[in-house]
Amino acid sequence: MESVVQSLPYLIEAATRTVMLSAVVIVISTAVGLVGGVVSVMFGTIAQAVVLALVYVLRGVPILVQLFLVYFGLPFFGIRVSPYVVAVIAISLHMGALMTEVFRGSLLALPRSQAEGGLALGMTPLMLMREVLLPQALRVALPPYVSLIPVTVKATALASVISIWELTLASKEIANRTLDTFEVFGIAFVMYFVICYPFTWLGRRFERKRTAYVH
Amino acid sequence: MNAHMRFDIDYVIRHLPDFGPAILTALELLLLALAIAFAWGILLAIGRLSKGPLRGAAAAYIEFFRNTPLLIQLYFAFFALPSLGIRLDAFETGVAALAAQHSAFFAEIFRGTIQSVASGQREAGYALGMVPGQLMRYVVLPQALRNAVPAMGNQVILLLQDTALVSTIGVYEITLQGRTLAERSAASFEMFVAVGLIYLVLSTIFSLLLRVVEQGCRIVK
Amino acid sequence: MIRIRSLRKRFGPLEVLRGVDLDVEKGEVVVLIGSSGSGKTTFLRCLNFLAEYEAGQIHIGDKLMWYRDAECRKKRPIHEIARDRTRIGMVFQAFNLFPHRTVLENIILGPTRIKAEPLSRADAESLAMELLRRVGLEDKARVYPATLSGGQQQRVAIARALAMEPEVMLFDEVTSALDPELVGEVLNVMRRLAQDGMTMIVVTHEIPFALDVADRVIFMDEGRILEQGPPAELLFNPQAPRLREFLRRFEEMRLITERMSGNGGQSAEALP
Questions:
Q1: Which positions in chain A have a beta carbon within 8 angstroms of at least one beta carbon in chain B?
Q2: pLDDT in tens, C60-106
Q3: What share of chain A is helix, strand, coil (3-state, %, to 5)?
């Protein structure tokens, strides 16, 4: 138990790594999702088909497998990057696919009249998207988007499998070293919970607000 | 293209049969965990919607498992549970951890569909003289479970993907089989392309199956 | 057979029932009328305890219902309440058939699963077929409720309630959700039920039905019984100003809807 108390700073540092990794992944996957969502509704059927096919593949393959695919795939194409970059790319691609669906869904949920109104005013499609559609869609997307944040945080735990040092790897390390497995993993659970729960709570609140508004 | 980039398809094809038992193991993990998570999820949802002390316990369970990673739950079950005298082999640990986590998600699905059964249905049941248990069994659950099928389908696909994590505690399912074969050769990338395709095919098959189930379960309204 | 004394019920600050007394004889048909918000539906729901009341006593036969004491302090246990509800059939405005069960399965659920002495499936089915014949739907036993019209669904709902062999039937605006052309078939079933001697308490806006079928009409207003009597007396010679106003407004409404639908309407058909 004493060793657990001593290793607390170590675990806290690891938890900050988890938060940082999550933040990087969320930023990138949000960008991926926005581009994917917009492209899939703005351009023709070919662009749409390509985006949907990519989403299908990225969603249909476990993140762990995607990690290995990127881990071995980049060197295969002669690209060498650090494992950290591998983790960021792999998890961001998977989460990006989920976010693409969120943004695409919210854009499609807008009434047609919105787009027609904008075009009638003489807007270019790009202006229409930026000024009219996207601002409204983002509001619709907010609840499912927020709910994806804890999913992302939990996904970063998988980076430990390719030796990225974050909360899961650190707790496994210390558990193996101190044999206080129960306490160490218990602390890790609490830390993950503290990071994730606010977003779970917020997402559900937004969701409830929206359904209250719709009905 | 340089020589380095030759896609070694032969190695993959040669070892494709090795995946047979691994796929079966993954399916066993999936089906066992699914059965437990389904039943346990119903009980959790009912507990979560009850008024007694079970309400808080069910809520705590659901929130805990929804907000912590499966991987660390797996490690916990594998490394920490034995210190409590609970000894499971790696496969059983995998089933238990998958079921424990996914039951929380199933519970949330069922909670939603149980709540959305119309209040007139409950009133009609009570007016006929049902006690709450009968109402749940004959009126609410049959409708709630049918309405849960689409969301459950999604969850089953996620569960299939999560079986990959059980590779980390040494269960020879698809991912660990792929890793082993990858390490034995220079064709690591090719191997994982194959692994990815296997998952893709499996989840496609499950999606199609679930769509059939969905059709069969729909209540004419 | 039913004795109700000073029944009171409130929703928060709102007093919905302000002391209702009523006796209903065996085989009597009592029709409750009144504007919306008068408390008639709440009153009906208190009778089988779908709505809980805070004061007053309900006796069915000799039994003090729902509470153990006359002061409404101690509710009876839930299984006893459930068993007592089987003595009372109820039909709702929204039908509330179970959508995942066929018509037959809707009807036999009560007799086979809820009754204190359950029937065998075969007995329950022949009872259900008999009831379906009575409501004119014997050919619909195997279909799901969603495939039926509103009027047909409501007749099934009546059959489902009758399958429990209740001592009294409660009808809560059972034709209000129906298209005008479907109202008659449901009222006809109810009329025959009354002729067969069923004790019935009916909340309805169908004044002609009240005139035709009721033994007694009761006008409720602001949570009280304001006037009651034989239907012709009450409807043709109303005393209370509120009742006169209610009937006048009602008549205007009927004329408007009839003019709009361009025919005599269903209500006219039910006139004696």
A1: 57, 60-66, 68-69, 72-73, 75-78, 150, 153-155, 157-158, 160-161, 167-168, 171-172, 175-176, 181-182, 185, 188-189, 192-193, 196-197, 200
A2: 999 999 999 999 999 999 999 999 999 999 999 999 999 999 999 99
A3: 90, 0, 10
